[in-house]
Design brief:
Strand 4 and strand 5 form a beta hairpin. With 132 residues, this protein is an alpha+beta fold. It has a six-stranded mixed β-sheet. The protein has one domain: STM4215-like.
Length: 132
């Protein structure tokens, strides 16, 4: 079985979940459709090394941002992500078989005041820790 990157595994997993119809990595494109999810791998580190340079398990922090035209739509989608990810253990897809995901909690509400093109949108952001 081919083992893909964590980015690819997450993309496959999030698309299969189908929580929002639009999924993007790292940032929204210009003129996106909504509701949309943006995921970003904020960090991805080895949790230990052995004396013979064999890498141990990895820990990645993933940020999920949901953008929608109403507060209700943004909150509903984020709650679905929380339900999907909270204490998840299993197959992430793309060769990631032993994955554990933990909810790290909500980020403060997204601030769109500095981004004029997003002022009419609502957003929610949350971090998750993935051990693999």
């Amino acid at each position: 079985m081919t083992r893909y990157s964590l980015k690819t595994g997450l993309n496959i997993f999030l698309k299969a979940a189908g929580i929002t119809p639009y999924l993007y990595h790292r940032e929204l494109p210009q003129d996106p459709s909504y509701p949309a999810t943006v995921y970003d791998i904020v960090s991805d580190i080895n949790t230990c090394h052995t004396h013979d340079r064999v890498n141990g398990p990895r820990q990645a922090r993933v940020q999920i941002d949901v953008y929608a035209e109403t507060v209700a739509a943004a909150e509903d989608a984020m709650e679905q992500y929380v339900e999907l990810f909270t204490s998840y253990s299993g197959d992430l897809g793309a060769g990631f078989l032993d994955v554990a995901i933990f909810d790290e909690g909500a980020n403060p509400d997204l601030d769109f005041e500095s981004e004029p093109t997003l002022r009419h949108l609502e957003g929610r952001s949350r971090d998750f820790m993935i051990l693999y």
